[in-house]
Every structure is written in C-alpha cells, then in structure tokens.
Amino acid sequence: MSEQLTLSRAIGAGLRRALADDDRVLLMGEDIGDLGGVFRVTDGLKAEFGAERVMDTPLAESAILGTAIGLAYRGFRPVVEIQFDGFIFPAFDQIVAQLGKLRYRTGGAVSMPITIRVPFGGGIGSVEHHSESPEAYFAHTPGLRVVSCSNPQDAYSMIREAIRSDDPVLFFEPKRRYWAKGEVDLEAEPEPLGSAKVVVTGADVTLVTYGPLVATAIDAAAAAVEDGVSVEVIDLRSLAPVDFETVEASVRKTGRLVITHEAAQSGGLGAEIAASITDRCFYHLEAAPQRVTGFDVPYPPAKLEEQYLPDLDRILDAVDRVLGRENSLTGWSAK
Amino acid sequence: MRTEAALDSPRENADMNEWPEPREELVQILTPDGERLEQPLYDRWISDIDADALVALLEDLTVVRRIDVEATALQRQGELGLWPPLLGQEASQIGSARALREDDFVFTSYRENAVAYCRGVQLGDLVKVWRGTAFSGWNPFDVGMATPQVIIGAQTLHATGYAMGCKKDGVDSVAVAYFGDGATSQGDVNEAMIFAASFNAPVIFFCQNNHWAISEPVGLQAVRPIADRAPGFGIPSMRVDGNDVLAVMAATRIALDRARSGGGPTFIEAVTYRMGPHTTSDDPSKYEDRASHEEWAAKDPILRLTQYLEGEGILTDEVRAAVKSKADDVAREFRAECIGMANPEPMTVFDNVFAEPHSALDRQKQQFAAYLSYVEGSTR
Q1: What are the beta bridge partners of residue A184?
Q2: pLDDT of B178-222, one tens digit each?
Q3: Residues of B in contact with A31 (CB under 8 A)
Q4: Are B280 and B83 in contact (CB under 8 A)?
Q5: Residue contact A60–B185, C-beta within 8 A
Q6: What is the pLDDT of residues B101-142, one digit of tens each?
Q7: Could you give the 3-state DSSP secondary structure of residue B241?
Q8: Most B-contacting residue of A178, A328, A329, A333 (CB-CB within 10 A), to test interface
C-alpha cells in the first residue's frame, strides 16, 4: 500500500504504526496532544491512542528527557518531541550526561530505547532559536545515534527504525521540507539505521549532505550537468555513525569531495567527514575536500538567513574549486 | 487538568504538614463592571493616581492594544514574519511597567511589547525582531530593558543576577522578571527563585498567568495556584486580577518598595487571559474552549477602566477623542516605521559575534566577501 504523503505526515504515519505495533511506545512533548504539535506531526494521535500514550507535558525540556529516562527504566519506549532545535539545550544535560551514558554506566544492564524528534534547520524566516542545526553536539557525544531524514519514504521508515532501536536516537527532521510530498510505501520493511544512500549517481565530484540540503544538492547536481559536470549526491541519513564505506566508495570513483550542511563549520560534521575520508582514501583524492556550511556565527535574523544558508550557487562554487575551475577563491589569499 | 488526588489533604495519621487552602481569590480594585472596591491594604499605594493619571493609563492601554492589532495586520500582510499578540494582557503589562523607575531593569519574555512601550522603546524598534532584521530592536541600556527572551524562563535568572549586582553596588534599583505560567515549569525559573531567596535579591517575579502555554492549559503546569509556590522558596507572593490595571500597579509598587528597602524578592501572579493566539502561526480553535474565551472577554481590562471613568465623569467626549487620536497617530507611525525599514547589509551577518578579532571567523568573512564580489561580477 503506498500513498502520497508530505514529510510531516509520513513521520506521523510512522509514529501511528509504532504506537499500534508496540503498546510500550509513548509520545511525550509540548503541544503534541490536542494541537498535534506545532508542525502537526502528531495530529490525531492523541484522539486515536489516548492521553496516556500521547502525553502533553509541562513546559520543561530537561524534565521531558529526564522523565523519559525514568520511563525507559520502567520498560517504556518513549518518543520525545523537542518543539524546535534551539529548545533542546535545557535538556542537554539529561541527553549528554545521562542518556548517552546509561548503558555504559550500568555495564549493559539498562537499555535506553528513547527517540528524540527534533525539527531542525532554517530557511523558514523564523525568530531566534527556531532555525538551528545542533546535530554536531550529539554526533560528538558517545552513546547516541544521530540520524536525519530528507524525504517522506525515509521519514516513515527511519522513525519506525529509530523507535525500534534499543539505543537512544536523535531524529532530526528537516523542518523546511515538512511540506515536501512523496510516495510512501507503508508496508516497506525499514532498513537498519546507519546506511547512507546515493541519491544521484555521478562520476566527477562526490557531494555529501543530509536533511534539508539533500534537495538543494540534487538541484545543484542537475545544474552541474548543464556545465558538463557529473556530481554524485550522497544522503548520509545517519550522522552517527557515518556510513563511511558508501562515501569512500564514491570518492574512490570521483576523487573529489564536497560536504555541505547548514550548521556552522568549525567542529562540524563536515570536518569529521573530510578528515575520515582523507584518511581512508588519501591517494584517490585529486583535490582537498571542501566544506560549504553555515558561518561560525549564531544563526542570524531572518533577513540575513539567505546569506548564511548554503545554496545551489555556493555549492557549485565549491564544485568548481575541487575541479580546479575558476571559482570565487581563484587568486584569493587571506589578508 | 487538576486532579482530585493532588488536592487531597495529607493523611491524618502521618506526620505531614497541613496544606494551606489554595489561594484562589484575587486582589481586585476595579471589578469587571467598572466598580471601584475599597482595598485598604492596596489603596494607599495608588492614592496619587488622580483623574489625569487614570486617563493616562487608559491611553496606554488603548495605544498598546492598537499597536498589537496593527502588528497582527502587518503580519497578515507579509510585513512581519511573526507576532505574539498580547491582547487581553494590557493591564498586567501597563500596570506593572508604569510602576517602575527609569533606573530599574526589566527582563521579559517575547510577549511584553506593552512593557517595552512603557520603557520608551521606539515604535520601529518594537518590530525589528518580528520583521527579522535584527535579534535586538534596541540597546538594553538605553531603556532599562533586556532584549525579549525566546527561551522560556531563561530571563528569570538574568533578572536575579542583575538584582544581586544592584545589591552589591549598594543602589536601590530593582530588577523585574516577566514570564508566563508555562515558564514556571522550567528549571531556570525555580532555580532563579532559590537564588533570589538565598541572596535576598531585589527582584520581582512577575508572572502573567494568561492560562495558556501555546495549547496547554495552566492546569498542566500547576495543580494549585501558581502564587502558592513562591512561599515554599521563601518568597512572599500576591495573586492579583491581571486585568485590573490599578490592582496590578498597587501590587507592583508594594513589591518594589520591599525590594528597595532590603526586603528581597516578591512574586506576583497576575491572573489574566491570552485572548489571541500564541502567535500569528497558532490556531486556538484546535484546543480552546469558547466558553472560557467569552467569560474572559467580559473581564476586559480596557472595558472596566472605561466604565469606571464614565461613572466618575472623567471620560468626557473630549478625553475620549484625545485618546482615540493618540492611538490613531501611534498606529500610523508604527505601520510607517515597519514598512519603511531597510534590510540589513549582507556582510553584517558576521558582525558582533566577538568583541575581539577571531581568526577563523575573519577568514570566513573575507572568503564570503570574495564570493559576493565574484557572484556579482559573473552576473553582470
């Protein structure tokens, strides 16, 4: 059975399926009940499964995560919604100092099958704390799995797989793609989390991204064809761990790597991927890997986000750079 | 949302302290019908509020409502990205903010646009954040008001720290934290009360209980009146009718006086109602009970003051016309300032991250400048 669904509806369908399949699955969060979440991802689920399983919580992110940990101790499988990316930080201690460490601390005795859903990224003209990309903090934290979906089918399958995982999973949802539609096979058996996917096949340059920029990268690859350049686009899907085998196989073929993400550059996912791929296939690289990212500034006000966000032109400029073609930094040197 | 179990008395056979009765009643000076009540404990704090001062309050309430309505319209017309209406909460904000001195300092949430108006924030500066041209519409030190806080409750700690600083400096300025009922669930707000009590900080915790945290009713945040929490932290509290501008002003003046004279923190719960959506992105029809809405519409803060002033013979046609004319002028200027606002220059995205040069950021800035001139060159 397959249906045309938006990405947000696809996540909702995955949550519905998980609630139906396992009565220990619980949803928790602010405004997820009658309102159905501020993005309507959980629309209708409280009516269908009741307030004991779809819980509006008091307004306190640290408490949401902390009590989810207690519920997991008790054998529940909580799926927590953090309303916006920038609201996750009150819960940072519970996630980093507790959730990520519990299995290790208890010698494997305690499982923490908690999924943390986080709408993330910019491009929607919103106010402060509503457009951030905090994934690197969590990818850097041992004990946490971190994933991000980019299309409705993956959204549906990956949320089910995240909930099924006995490990804590940060599930980053690309909020500016919530309204993107796609065919979703509701009977598809989810693939295990952790694999990247080649979404455009190409020969000259490997372009690696995830979440909201996958659509931008696909557009960039299409535009590059007009310049006679063949770009291979990889949707990482999993950010921790990264499926380096898939990236490495592509770079061995193309010899050139561009990574793009919305998050700031320093200490970001792009740095990790550039370093690991350089290590894995140094002699196959024809050029230094390039990163196209947000700047090392706080996510800016809406009227400046166009400057901040990597877009098709900035990605193609980096593609030109790894190909040794004329680009914005030709002849440039630091002042 | 309140459960029976939560309100049960402690068991008689256990050595538990008795719970006081929940403080449901509100301090009220003006009834919803505009009748003035005798409140000996509070009246003396507003004895200076004469006919002119009352008209000034009516003008404030009317003007900020016009600003709010105009902003919602501007958002609908695409001129603002978002707006958080304060409709219904005018008296809580005006009554408290007009009690403050210039050297006091307020730390608010994002809905306190009437407080900002009272602090002297320029009309165009009110909307910069909502138009998306800046994160700070004004310099906090120019008006004694921090940039509105978006992270729920975080500002209560800032207010407490500021107040601790006032005390260390030996000045009698007071810090005021504005926050809502939802924020009282956050750790930060509870921790702020602990610090304020421990350090006897001259801070006022001004909680506007507007009954809603987006879609969540106040009963999910608190099973007893919010004002009842403060004594547990060692902070005295008042529970006032937040739609009564005189009651709010009296309570705020009492709290200010305590703070200035070394009495420490006070908690005020101003019970009001959010008559609009959470923001222009919200749809209360998904969760709000219409009967509550209608009940609160009858308790409108402007309506009751208007009726009182009519009864006293203060609200002449002339006064009424002057108030309307002021509101019209402000609304016109507000709209013009908003629409005429320039967008920030692209390279300003790098400004004000650090006080001193930063090598990594400076390199990104230079490279982006090279990129912009390259793109400009190639499109010509």
Answers
A1: A3
A2: 999 999 999 999 999 999 999 999 999 999 999 999 999 999 999
A3: 213-216
A4: yes
A5: yes
A6: 999 999 999 999 999 999 999 999 999 999 999 999 999 999
A7: strand
A8: A328
